[in-house]
């Protein structure tokens, strides 16, 4: 019996994850019908995606580019605008699965709306769980929907847990490539360029996540995400540097056994697993040649050199609104670095100042999270010169 065709909305279809998701959809050969696509302002690529996948509607966050696209496509496709457009499409009956691959805090509200309207969510937007993990996981339980991670690390853990009793888990081990500055002296980090920071050795990603990888903030965000996804306390989540990026994460069980998920660094693998979960489908691509690989190495991260990882752990321990503050401060600081206003080493300095100045509110509701995000962005923007 052929699987039922699912309608899919891809939030952030012109980004790295979104483009790879469309490649996976094409590979799956008719199992998914693309009903909605979205972009911030890249309407040139969005037009090509419209021609190829013929969605019923698209959302352009940027108002000017939305009006331009509307004139270009005419009656070919419905064009919606802004955050309201994102929240509108995830509610619709012609959506079964929402792929949330938006960058940053922008993914929070549409993810909440998707869950409330009982849509399955494949989540690549880690900031959603970082800022509002308690709210999101509570809603997932309330509405009985699937929340499947796309991040390679969390996909790896999900795969390692298949068929296992989660009460028998001793700890989760997230692997980190170490980014482009793994072997750079700590004193030299203040002078690295944007171009050097964007030159990741293993993965092709968007600018924001690539900078997060360079500071290891990405791994800090993933620790918080893993805490909420798998309901384990921080002391049972460990980070280990694994430069080859072949083992994507591991699970240690109470008997000392360790399961690991391995694969080449190709995001199409965890994306397809999220779309077909709990099944697997054939996927063309490279395979590991262990004889050619030769060896894999592991060591502890340097928390003095990569302060962002420590700050993320501190934020998780403080809880409440603090992770949202940390996330907002990081987004503003990363943007400032990309625009050459601050150095790479100043990113954790501004995050630290934001956390220190914040008064944590425990058990926050959505308005508390939104206010923490808004006020932090204003604070950090005001102190960046």
Task: Describe the protein in words.
The chain has helices spanning about 15-25, 45-55, 65-75, 80-90, 110-115, 125-145, 150-160, 195, 205-215, 215-230, 270-275, 290-295, 305-320, 320-340, 345-355, 365-385, and strands at about 5-10, 30-40, 55-60, 80, 95-100, 120-125, 145-150, 170-175, 235-240, 245-255, 260. The protein has about 375 residues and is an alpha/beta fold. The strands form 2 sheets. It has a 7-stranded parallel sheet, sandwiched between helices. Helix 15 (about 345-355) crosses helix 16.
Shape: globular
CATH architecture of the largest domain: Orthogonal Bundle
What string gives the helices and strands in order?
EHEHEHEHEHEHEHEHHHEEEHHHHHH
Radius of gyration from the alpha-carbon trace, in angstroms: 20 Å
What's a concise summary of this model?
The protein has 385 residues and is of the alpha/beta class. The chain is 46% helix and 15% strand. Helix 6 (126-143) runs antiparallel to helix 14, helix 10 (217-230) packs parallel to helix 13 and helix 13 packs parallel to helix 15.
Task: Name its key features.
single chain, 11 strands, 385 residues, globular, 7-stranded parallel sheet, Rna Polymerase Sigma Factor, Chain: A, 2 domains, Rossmann fold, 4-stranded mixed sheet, 16 helices, 15% strand, alpha/beta
